[in-house]
Specification:
The complex is a heterodimer of chains A (118) and B (111). Chain A has 118 residues and is an all-beta fold. Chain A has no helices and eleven strands. In chain A, strands 2, 4, 5, 6, 9, 10 and 11 form a seven-stranded mixed β-sheet that branches. A four-stranded antiparallel β-sheet of chain A has the order 1-3-8-7, with no helix packed on it. Chain A is globular and about 40 Å long. Chain A starts with a strand and ends with a strand. Chain B is built from no helices and nine strands. Chain B has strands at 9-12, 18-23, 35-40, 47-50, 64-69, 72-77, 86-93, 100-102, 106-110. In chain B, the strands form two sheets. In chain B, strands 1, 3, 4, 7, 8 and 9 form a six-stranded mixed β-sheet that branches. In chain B, strands 2-6-5 form a three-stranded antiparallel β-sheet, with no helix packed on it. Classes of the chains: A mainly beta (118), B mainly beta (111). Chains A and B meet through strand 5 and strand 10 of A and strand 3, strand 7 and strand 8 of B.
Chain lengths: 118, 111
């Protein structure tokens, strides 16, 4: 059974940093593109970033470009999202998601809450 | 880029059908076969219901079907059941930077 476990969320002040992790099991992690998708409180889904199978290709939403970095460690079956210079509008639940391809997500983590407050 | 356009709500009685639209542009929905639909219950992670416009993942009931015409994709839920009451989101490849665009979501109510 495929399982994705998100962690690393928390409270942080504007300008601060957080590193999210997503531990994967039940799949050949190194065979799939992986993504982060977020959801602000009471709002819809927003794609954040995707990383290729090898990690050599990374892509970001304009809203986070230059501030967030996606990475993966295939030896540890783990996906990461380093978030720097956080803003209030980055507040929300962050989900890691396994790519059926680059553009559809067939398995999701349970989500981890990031709250940026001042 | 703006989110794809979905109606905020839709409803139907048990056994009836409900169709949700998802309108974009020729740069995303209209120009892509990578249209997906997700179901989300409150406080839960989304679940993939349809991918590549009309394909169903294993385990998704065939009551759920997808289609596309021009710049508008649609999700139809036939034979509505109480358990179908949830939020539904469409998404599409957005044509650049491997970006995925989501719709604003539609709350489906089973009357």
């Amino acid at each position: 059974e495929v399982q994705l476990s998100d962690s690393g969320g928390g409270l942080v002040q504007p300008g601060g940093s957080l590193r999210l992790s997503c531990a994967a099991s039940g799949l050949t992690f190194s065979s799939y593109a992986m993504s982060w998708v977020r959801q602000a409180p009471g709002k819809g889904l927003e794609w954040v970033s995707v990383i290729s199978i090898s990690g050599s290709g990374t892509y970001y939403a304009d809203s986070v470009k230059g501030r967030f970095t996606i990475s993966r460690d295939n030896s540890k079956n783990t996906l990461y999202l380093q978030m720097n210079n956080l803003r209030a509008e980055d507040t929300g639940v962050y989900y890691c998601a396994k790519g059926l391809n680059y553009y559809s997500f067939d398995y999701w983590g349970q989500g981890t809450l990031v709250t940026v407050y001042s | 880029q703006s989110a794809l356009t979905q109606p905020p709500s839709a409803s139907g009685s048990p056994g009836q059908s409900v169709t949700i639209s998802c309108t974009g542009t020729s740069s995303d929905v209209g120009g892509s076969n990578y249209v997906s639909w997700y179901q989300q219950y409150p406080g839960k992670a989304p679940k993939l219901m349809i991918y590549e416009v009309r394909k169903r993942p294993s385990g998704v009931p065939d009551r759920f079907s997808g289609s596309k015409s021009g710049n508008t994709a649609s999700l139809t839920v036939s034979g509505l059941q109480a358990e179908d009451e949830a939020d539904y989101y469409c998404s599409s490849y957005a044509g650049s930077n491997q970006e995925v665009m989501f719709g604003g979501g539609t709350k489906v109510t089973v009357l």
